[in-house]
C-alpha cells in the first residue's frame, strides 16, 4: 500500500511528519512525497523536504495526506496546483486525508462534506459548505480529517486501525510511544484566552 504526502511551501511540518511516522511504521506501506516540482520544499518553521514525485507525474495512490499551514488563507487564494491535483487524484485513492487546515484544501476541492480542522480555521470550512466537527478525528466516507497539528498522529492511528486492524494500530502506537494526554482543548479554555488566540491567528492571515 502506498501513502503519499502532499508538500507545498509554508506547510506545517508536524502535520505530515506525525502521520508519516505512523504509516511508515507499517511494513507493507511505502511512502512518497509529492509537490509541484522536484525542488526541495520548506515548511513554515524551516524544515526542508525533497519530493519524490510531482503533481504531473503521480496519477494514482492509495492514501493521500494533506498537511495544513499557518498561512492557510493565502494558500486557499493560490494553492500552487494542490487543489487541482487533489481533484484529479481523489478518484484513485482508498483514503484521502488531511491534518489541521489541510481540510480547507479538501473543502476547496469539493471533496468533503463533514470535517474537523484547527479551531482557527473552522469558519473557512463552514463558508465552503462543510459541516464542521470539533472531534479530533472525523471519517466522512473515504475522507478522514484530523484537527490541529498533533491530531495528525491520532488520525493516522485511526486510519491504520481501519485498514489493518486494532492490533496493528496498538503495536504502532506503542512502538512510537504515543500516549496522548492533552491538558487543554480550545473549547475548554477561558473565553478571554480563546478570543486572544483567535485574534492573533486572524491577524496573521492579513
TrEMBL record:
Protein known as: DJ-1/PfpI family protein
Coiled coil: none
Gene3D superfamilies documented for this protein: 3.40.50.880
InterPro entries to which the protein is assigned, alphabetical: Class_I_gatase-like (IPR029062), DJ-1/PfpI (IPR002818), INH-QAR (IPR052158)
Domain DJ-1/PfpI: 3-161
Biological processes annotated in GO: regulation of DNA-templated transcription
Domain of life: Bacteria
Source organism (scientific name): Lentzea waywayandensis
Amino acid at each position: 500500500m502506498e501513502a503519499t504526502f502532499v508538500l507545498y511551501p509554508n506547510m506545517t511540518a508536524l502535520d505530515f511528519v506525525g502521520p508519516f511516522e505512523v504509516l511508515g511504521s507499517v511494513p507493507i506501506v511505502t511512502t512518497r512525497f509529492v509537490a509541484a516540482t522536484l525542488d526541495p520544499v520548506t515548511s513554515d518553521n524551516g524544515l526542508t523536504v525533497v519530493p519524490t514525485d510531482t503533481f504531473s507525474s503521480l496519477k494514482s495512490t492509495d492514501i493521500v495526506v494533506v498537511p495544513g499551514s499557518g498561512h492557510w488563507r493565502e494558500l486557499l487564494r493560490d494553492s500552487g496546483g494542490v487543489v487541482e491535483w487533489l481533484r484529479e487524484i481523489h478518484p484513485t485513492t482508498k483514503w484521502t486525508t488531511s491534518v489541521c487546515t489541510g481540510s480547507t484544501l479538501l473543502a476547496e476541492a469539493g471533496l468533503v462534506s463533514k470535517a474537523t480542522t484547527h479551531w482557527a480555521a473552522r469558519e473557512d470550512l463552514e463558508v465552503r459548505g462543510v459541516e464542521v466537527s470539533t472531534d479530533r478525528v472525523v471519517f466522512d466516507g473515504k475522507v478522514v480529517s484530523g484537527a490541529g497539528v498533533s491530531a495528525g498522529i491520532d488520525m493516522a492511528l485511526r486510519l491504520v486501525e481501519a485498514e489493518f486492524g486494532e492490533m496493528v494500530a496498538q503495536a504502532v502506537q506503542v512502538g512510537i510511544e504515543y500516549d496522548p494526554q492533552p491538558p487543554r482543548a480550545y473549547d475548554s479554555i477561558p473565553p478571554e484566552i480563546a478570543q486572544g488566540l483567535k485574534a492573533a491567528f486572524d491577524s496573521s492571515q492579513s
